[in-house]
Amino acid sequence: MTAKYQVIYQALRRSILSGRLAPNTPLPSENALAIKYGVSRITSKRALNELAAADLIYRVQGVGSFVKGHRTSNGSRRILLVIPFADSHGIGNYEQGISDTLADTDWELLSMPNQQFAALPIKQIQQEYAGVLYYPTTLSADTARLITLYLAKIPIVLLDKTIPGVAIPSVTADNEAGGQLAVQHLLKLGHRRIAFLARTNFWDTFTGTVSARFFGYLNGYRDDPPTASDPLAWAQVLTTRALPSERAAFLRQEKISAVVVENDLEALRFMQQLKQLGWSLPADLSVVGFDDLPAARLQEPALTTIRQDFVQIGTEAVNTLLAQMNDPAARLPEHKRVPVTLVTRASTVPFN
Which of 118, 148, 205, 326 falls 20 to 30 Å from 32 in CA-CA distance? Predict the structure, then answer.
């Protein structure tokens, strides 16, 4: 449960960082805040003290508290969202959380695909944008560019992925918890031979979103593993066998009754391929996806999946970026994980 002073602190902090409260605007008094939030004056005073400690307000003895003026290094009020437009239907609605947070402020949100952003000179980015929200296509493709931005001291926050060892803040879903939730759900239904299916060879580096989901899958599996099973080998075979008929034959051969798939799009594609081969789903195979995209509800059978809160991820990301732009010297949390939830639908049934 969030402490009461933190509720006041976070509400005022968001209003200050977003620009809703302009520099030198007077804040409500300790008494006014105490009445508004139904807390003691000691609690409201602590919230104001925390804001002062965070260098967000200044206090004038006998007069009150006022918003402290901060400006971005280049004076820009533009935030750039870099996201692969071609795949936007499969990466969730981050933009809603970002837009909602910036609504009624003087911040302007612009979007650009990764390929176009990669061609921009660093100097142009520094001059035109106050900060960047960046969704990497892959870490292997984007890390060099991200390091250049980091060294140029351009405020940046990553969506969905994190670079280990580099202090670039990032916001992701709790992918490990999601993988664990998926397996625990299937175990409760009586399944014991549960495989993991990915689109790419995540085991080449064991880093990134898919690897985190796989490790969560392993964590959920280890308490009740079947005899003579090799989850990593299963994942490698299923991922590298491109033909649906080869994957189907392997599932039959290994008596695998359920599959956790790296994301909803891959899960829906795989289910369609199996149905074209004459499989009856979920009778022949239970399937769990990850993301809870709108298409997951429209599939027949509707897809059981792990829901990412894309809106909350977007909100956390832009708040982290605003804090970074407000105080570039501050050491920010390097990685935030947003909780996930299991959404049970018709694609998973008890083992028989």
Answer: 326
